[in-house]
């Protein structure tokens, strides 16, 4: 077995350390000894994008916003879900090194993805991108932390407040979807979404396509205004 190899390290704008490691053909990013993401488990991130984007497959020019580039699994699934030429994928990423790592060390995982002219990566907080527009995005996907009670990125806390939810709601078109990924459930966050008068579904999906199928992550789908029909794949199940 090959040893773990540290490929790069950086500091986030908040001063948190990030390290990129490779082990055999897999990658993971850690902060202060805790793994934030790994290329071995990304099924739930892909489901986030598929569920958020599927209703807008018939649209000619859907524009979606993704909070957090990560290892590009959410972005790749969104691009696959919306193959039309008129689609636009805006990604908000705080840490420039994350973008560079995807363009260099990890570029083989998603060949050509970041060169797609429909993909726009902006090095700024997703809150700012949402605040700049009104009735603009078909879908907003948030995969910036470990969940509403995140251990990483204190500045992202505002995303999960009632004010942050209203910010996202205002940036969505009528019938648009706010989709939020979390490593665990959070009934308080569900209540906040409903308080913002969004039509909320809470769905549990396997964390990975392979391995521990009993490990589940949580996805919130919060719809603004008129109901938009969607087909939730066999991997997901609604929570009552």
Order of helices and strands: EEEEHEHEHEHEHEHEEE
Label the overall shape. globular
* CATH topology (fold) name: Rossmann fold
Major sheet: order of its strands? 7-6-5-8-9-11-10-12
Tally of extended strands?
12
The percent of residues in helical segments reads 10-25%
- The figure for the number of domains is 1
Fourth-level CATH superfamily: Vaccinia Virus protein VP39
What kind of sheet is the major sheet? 8 strands, mixed
Q: Which stretches are low in confidence, meaning pLDDT under 50 for 5 or more residues running? A: 227-240
What is the arithmetic mean of pLDDT? 88
- Can you tell me the CATH class? Alpha Beta
Compute the CA-based radius of gyration: 17 Å
Beta-strand percentage range: 25-35%
Describe this protein's structure.
This protein is α/β, with parallel strands linked by helices and 240 residues long. It has a single domain (41-238), classed as 3-Layer(aba) Sandwich (Rossmann fold). The protein has helices at 43-53, 73-81, 96-103, 126-131, 162-171, 187-195, and strands at 5-11, 17-23, 26-31, 34-38, 63-67, 88-92, 119-122, 137-142, 172-182, 199-206, 216-223, 237-238. Strands 7-6-5-8-9-11-10-12 form an 8-stranded mixed β-sheet. It has a 4-stranded antiparallel β-sheet with strand order 1-2-3-4, with no helix packed on it.
């Amino acid at each position: 077995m090959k040893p773990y190899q540290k490929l790069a390290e950086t500091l986030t704008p908040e001063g948190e350390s990030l390290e990129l490691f490779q082990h055999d053909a897999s990658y993971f990013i850690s902060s202060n000894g805790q793994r934030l993401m790994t290329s071995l488990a990304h099924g739930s991130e892909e489901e986030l994008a598929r569920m958020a984007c599927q209703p807008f497959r018939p649209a000619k020019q859907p524009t979606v916003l993704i909070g957090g580039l990560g290892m590009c699994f959410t972005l790749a699934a969104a691009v696959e879900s919306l193959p039309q030429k008129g689609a636009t994928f805006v990604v908000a990423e705080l840490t420039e090194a994350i973008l560079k790592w995807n363009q260099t060390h990890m570029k083989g995982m998603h060949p050509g993805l970041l060169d797609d002219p429909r993909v726009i990566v902006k090095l700024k907080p997703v809150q700012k991108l949402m605040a700049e527009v009104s009735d603009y995005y078909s879908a907003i996907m948030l995969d910036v932390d470990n969940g509403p009670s995140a251990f990483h990125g204190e500045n992202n806390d505002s995303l999960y407040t009632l004010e942050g939810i209203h910010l996202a709601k205002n940036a969505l078109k009528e019938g648009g979807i706010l989709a939020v990924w979390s490593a665990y459930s959070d009934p308080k966050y569900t209540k906040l979404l409903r308080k913002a008068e969004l039509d909320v579904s809470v769905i549990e999906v396997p964390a990975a396509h392979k391995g521990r199928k009993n490990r589940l992550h949580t996805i919130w789908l919060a719809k603004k205004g008129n109901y938009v029909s969607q087909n939730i794949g066999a991997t997901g199940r609604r929570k009552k």
